[in-house]
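To: structure desk
From: M.T.
Subject: fold request, one chain
Message: Could you run this one when you get a chance? Sequence is below, nothing fancy, just the single chain.
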Amino acid sequence: MKRSSLWMSENNLELPFPNSDIWNNQQLKINFALSHVVVNLPIHIRSYISYYYGNFSYVINFAKFYSDFWEQVGRDLKNVDFFDLIDIKFVEWLKIMQFEELFTDINISFNEIFEINKFSMY
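Reply: Done. Structure tokens follow.
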């Protein structure tokens, strides 16, 4: 993924997100929450997730998943931009969450149908 603008950190490292002074409130809240919930997530990864995905549902659960994934598998990957890896894993995560929501909705619908039929039998 080619990022249109890279920002410089205090250590002159290029970061694909701006300084937090121009983030919206939701992004700042997510960054704060992630700093307390997923404490082993590196700051640059936490900031990237907060900035780009802070307005999405499930972002904290995704960060937990990504942290576990990174600890188990990600560190061993060679020649992978971890920001690109976050993007790929977030898309996969959203697909899983959407499927789970759909499955839950279908399950609730079936339960409602069975409840209606149970009462109509008597």
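Reply (cont.): The chain has one domain: 7-120. Let me know if you need anything else for the meeting.
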